[in-house]
Amino acid sequence: MKRNILIITTLLFLGTVTAQKKLDALTTPSSPASSLLGMQPSAIIKPKSYRALEAALFTNFRDENGNSIIPNDFGLEFTPYWATDHGITIEEYLYPKLSFDQIIRNSSFSVASTQNFMLQDSTKTKSLAFGYRTSLFFGNTKDKEIITKHINELSINQRVGSKILSKLIEAQNKFNYKTKEEYLSAVHDTLTKRIYEVLGKKSLKDAEEITQKIYDSSENLAFDENDIDAFFTAFTELIESKMAGSYAEFKSYILERQGLNIDFAYALSLNFPTNDFEYSEVPRQSFWINPSYKFSDKINFLKAIGVLRYEWYNKKYFENYFPDAKVYKNNFDYGLALSGEFKKFTIEFEATGRQSSSLSAAGKDNAGNTLYTKETASDFQYIGTFSYRLTEQIALSYQIGSAFKPVFETGGTLVSLLSLNFGFGGPDKTDVTSK
């Protein structure tokens, strides 16, 4: 138990120190590869945040002996586009000109692995899964108007900040100041005038109010006449933060922007039934279409996510390694999830139905042709998910509910799963520009 706590604590620390000021917040894990291995019982692939790399740990609190919670299931999802800085504009970031640009930018590749894939005869084997996904976002007129307003404000603030700093640098180079009060008093009028000049239609009163906010916040800045450069650096950073005030508002809107998002995903699993790397089987494959819609106004905390998923099973594989299991070749899932987002906390409920079908040989006709009968079945699952975003780079989630009848193991339909997701890279405030 102590070892588990140490592992989780270490990972939390690493995630915290690598956190950046991201343009979006990390979502809970839902990669195609992890879903196909059964690590995530949810049939719904939730929209992905912009991250170059996401890593997830999964645990169901017990091993076969019921006395260990060390995670042995892992998942990674890599988005190549966000591994480097592209210097794109904010407008292009939010509204790519071509749908193809969105497809490339949102394309991610996932891999998941488990060391405890149990065959019917209790043989413990290893399994891998590989997945791909991308998404398209369709905003509306109101969304574009709000985006344009924020972009204009950010553009103005950037111009204001750069022009103000150029004047302060001139003043810094001309005079030597003994105290912080002397410096602030000397540059007060210059600072106010410069803010007024670059604000365009803003009044002098507005400029004076901005200057006062900057001065109020400067009370906590240290001043050493022998190291005035350190104070000047801190003071200029303070000015930049005050002049970029609309960034926080813009970021909040990005997290809550309304519109339709459609995710497309595909994944296949790979099992090594003899634990020999040279021999593997493909038990099943899946294809997803996941539309999601973020509501606005009084219900802007609510998101609806749908799922259409087609899964096909390799019946020969199951006949060999799960001879007593009832497996249908074709499985069509359809469902809906409602998600409520409250700052760092998210609660979600999912209900998904399944229609299964398969053809079975029923003999031969007089001409020797094989006759088939069609077998069908239906199933249903419901799952509740509780998520908490510890930081912008770390998300913790817990799922509980009743899953589809299991094929791979006989542990019942109870879902009780804890997962921890880490995000690395992705666009932050410095990766996009407003021009």
From TrEMBL:
This is DUF5723 domain-containing protein.
